[in-house]
Design goal:
The protein is α+β, with helices and mostly antiparallel strands. It has four helices and twelve strands, in the order ββαββαββββββααββ. Helix content is 15%, strand content 31%. A hairpin with a 7-residue loop joins strand 9 and strand 10. The protein starts with 10 loop residues before the first strand and ends in a 9-residue tail after the last strand.
Length: 219
């Protein structure tokens, strides 16, 4: 098996790492020998004390923070649980969304769609879930698509994908929630974690990392 290329951290210090995960790479190992290559395994080959704090879906690219050691893992996990971490994503979605100065809100509870797991669904009995969105631009061509900014105020599984689907604007390239036509319009899921901000648990410095998306849209 060919060795994976080395990781080039966005940020590295004795306490934590910030990495830019490529689309198509798992954050943690999955079931089966073909799913052992992942971000955490690659990171631990370079930084043996690296530990997962949060995850991105396999198809999502972008910024991921990893702790160095269990104490830092607890501190960073608490920051995520207490919503003290700023997260912003970019996506390209189907259809024309209105261009406004203000952010709009999707407030819809989510729960597992048990007969179709790992899919999630909106359900009044689900966990409270909220996403802010703002349209950036309308790419040229037909069918219409919109480049949007997304800020999840909660951290539910597949939250951004299901929330956008619920308002009629699924993310292009989504193999889980989109039909064949939607998948054919992009070579991958067009969802990218572009900003990550938090207070460093040790130095108390305010950190903010940005990696803009580099999406390719198939007309």
């Amino acid at each position: 098996m060919t060795a994976a290329p080395p990781l080039h951290p966005v940020h590295e210090d004795p306490y934590l790492l910030v990495l830019d995960k490529p689309a198509g790479l798992l954050c943690v190992p999955g079931r089966g020998e073909d799913k052992q290559d992942c971000l955490s395994t690659r990171a631990q080959s370079q930084w043996p004390d690296a530990l997962i704090v949060h995850r991105l879906d396999m198809g999502t690219s972008g910024l991921v923070v990893m702790a160095r050691g269990t104490e830092m893992q607890r501190a960073l996990s608490a920051a995520f649980a207490e919503r003290r971490v700023h997260k912003r994503y970019e996506a390209v979605v189907d259809g024309a969304m209105p261009l406004r100065e203000d952010w709009s809100l999707i407030d819809a509870p989510l729960m597992a769609d048990w007969p179709r797991r790992p899919l999630q669904k909106i359900d009044p009995e689900g966990k409270p879930s909220a996403t802010r969105w703002k349209a950036l631009s309308l790419p040229s061509g037909e069918p219409a698509a919109t480049h949007v900014l997304l800020e999840p105020l909660t951290g539910r599984s597949h939250q951004l994908r299901v929330h956008l689907l619920s308002i009629g604007h699924p993310i292009l390239g989504d193999a889980l929630y989109g039909d064949a036509a939607l998948q054919a319009r992009a070579p991958r899921l067009l969802l990218h974690a572009s900003e990550l901000g938090f207070v460093h648990p040790v130095t108390r410095q305010e950190l903010c990392f940005k990696r803009p998306a580099e999406f390719v849209i198939t007309p």
